[in-house]
Queue: 3 jobs
Job 1
Amino acid sequence: VHLVESGGGLVQPGGSLRLSCAFSGFTLDDYAIGWFRQVSENKREALSCISSGEKSYYLDSIRGRFTISGDAAKSTVYMEMNGLKPEDTAVYYCASEVAHYCSGVGNYWGQGTQVTVSS
């Protein structure tokens, strides 16, 4: 199982980014994939999840701004982030979850990609 995130960077408030998570060694029929962010040393937030049968959003502050999607043929999951705010600054991770359905619990993790929202 291997996951690699990309697409982070520096963006101004109100801007947009699209994060990608390329995965291998499994399919979305096997495990759901979740997006998480580490906002501080002791705080990790579960953001969203996609499986072969569902999409879920865990954090109220991202609803309507972030959209998760997947391309099974490319073994890639995306998270489109619009209306970015300084409080969205964090290291963003994708992870395979512990089951084929969305649970909010990551199992295998990518290396993370930094998102910084600042003027």
Job 2
Amino acid sequence: QVQLVESGGGLAQAGASLTLSCAASGRRFSSYAMGWFRQAPEKEREFVAGIRWNGGSAVYAESVKGRFILSRGYAETTVFLQMNSLKPEDTAVYYCAASSNGPLSRYDYWGQGTQVTVSS
């Protein structure tokens, strides 16, 4: 059974940093792409960042480019989203997801989400 478990969310002040983690289990993800999405209240879920397990650079939404860094863990079971210079508009539930098609394609598996709240 595939599981994606996010952690690291919480409350932060504007300008601070938080790092989210996503632990993946239940299958081999070496050929998958891993991504982060977020959904703010009363807004649609939006893509934040994505990366392939087996190489290549991460891709980012324009709204987070230059502030967020997506990286892979060594064991191909964890991905990290380092969020710097946080803004109140980054407040959302953040979801980890896995795609068998690519970082900008349809995602097959989803985590339950972790709340990030940024105060001004």
Job 3
Amino acid sequence: VQLVESGGGLVQPGGSLRLSCAASGFTFISADLSWYRQAPGKERELVAGIGRFGDNANYKDSVKGRFVISRDNAKNMVYLQMNSLEPEDTAVYYCNAKYFYYRAYNVYGQGTQVTVSS
């Protein structure tokens, strides 16, 4: 099972980034997918989640209207489009998959750094 994030980087306030996560090793369509983030000195927090068929998208209040989560079940990919970025969005962003195959799995990728600074 593997989740590999990409697309992070340094961006100015007000800018945009698109994070991507490539998944392998499990039945992608069976998984609920999410993006989490962890800022220095803070706990990891849920940013956005999406259901198996691209439905039931949900967001952390502070990113509503700025971030959009999506998935492509044909390509085993999940995305996070981040617009109007703020310094408070600076964190390591992690892709997450939750699925059941004989037992429950809760898998994270290695993370990608997003830094919002002028």
